[in-house]
Amino acid sequence: MKIPALLIAGLLLLGAQAWPARAQSIEEKQITAGKFSVDPASGYIFSHGPFRQMGMFLKVPDQDDLDAYKKDWDAAFAKAKAKYPKQLASWEAEKKASATTGAKIGDKPVEPTPESFSIGDIETRYTISFGPQYVFSKDTANNYYSYMTKVKPGTYIYYGPIMFDVNAGYLGTCYCMGTVKFEVKPGIITDLGNFLMAGSFQTPVNPPTPGVSFTPQGTFLTIGKQKVEVGKFEWGLPASLKSFPSAQADFHAAGKMNNYYGISIARMPAIPGILGYQRDKVIDLKAAPATGAVAQP
Amino acid sequence: MPELAFVEAPADVQTYDKYFFFHRDNTSFDEAYADIKECDALASGIRYYAGQNNYYGQYGLGGAIGGAIGNAIADAIFGSAERRKIHRANVRNCMSYKEYQRYGISEQLWKAFNFQEGNGRKKDEEREADLLQQAKVAAGPKPQYKVLEP
Fold first, then answer.
1. For the whole model, what pTM was predicted?
2. In a designed cystine with A162, which of A2, A56, A231, A235 is the match (CB 3.0 to 4.6 A)?
3. Nearest by CB: A265 against B62, B70, B93
4. Is the CB of residue A280 less than 8 Å from the CB of residue B97?
5. Which of A6, A121, A123 to mutate to test the interface with B (most CBs of B within 10 A)?
6. Chain B contact for A118, CB < 8 A?
7. B138 lies in a domain?
8. Per-residue pLDDT tens for B29-64?
9. A276 min Cα distance to partner chain B (Å)
10. ipTM of this model?
11. Nearest-CA neighbor of A265 among A192, A184, A172?
């Protein structure tokens, strides 16, 4: 089935609220030009890797987020309730007319109830995406690409290597079946190092992932015709950021999540001391290594 | 219990990436059914986990609409076949994490207890009936076929 372009445009508009917020990418040239200062009310996420990356973080809703969501929900529900009698009257008039004209009519409107009405997932309201464009800095000769993003402080779950393309929708793989989360504090650059790639590809993936090869020499990713070593995990802010307050991310296991965008699903490979699995149960090794507590999102 | 016995033809082997079923030893029907439901939901973008804070309990389940919109756009761009391919890969990933083994089957037998979704969704009753049958197979007698890669 082909969907006309106009309908796609309409769907895009309908779904506009679900698209990831345009995160504020910071570039190194802003630092060197003296055009950057740390906003004490915001946090910053820094990461790097051996090639251009893309990724999405979901913010764990805090009380402010829940309050804002409830406010929007209440307003939207009240509006829907107010519209319902008019929709019903219009449908009944159509039905009456169709008795003589034989015209087809749509489905009878359903009265909104608190159980059935929603304004969408709260989890996808506060998403942050980065890459593959808008690098903080790059050194192509040495396979180094970094990203820094300004975010609202809070706890963020790494949802996976995912991007939104205006022409193709959501692309990538969600780590719906196991991943990590970390806290971003206000006024501080949270350093993820190269964890998103190197930290998570130290143990073989099961089932094997196309393009990822584990060898005694290291883990390699094949991107197009290029084969790049993922490398060992390392923290590290570049010299340009050394004078700003920063902290290394404290990664914890994060449990299963819905596949909100209907894309490919997988899980972050096990990470010694942080993320483990018992079959598909996600184990928080940092919180309770002895008891093997099942991780929550 | 769905029919699983067939004489393998060379052509069947070529389509085992599409036509397969799962089985795990020492697994009850209830366990298998719960696992299959979870993997189907994850593979299809259906909301499954209520969340630690039970947001859905507070704010309804209409969030599924968001997923439907995303899928409709993807269908329009990638086509139904690509979506079916993603769904199959997702189910394989999910069931392999749960340590189920995968076996090939003929297309004809497969169709009797499986559905394919690209554009749009099958009726809930049809999906449910097939998922129940798949759970019976997954928890049933150990298949005497070659185990495929996950």
1. 0.85
2. A56
3. B93
4. yes
5. A121
6. yes
7. yes
8. 999 999 999 999 999 888 888 654 444 444 433 333
9. 12
10. 0.84
11. A172
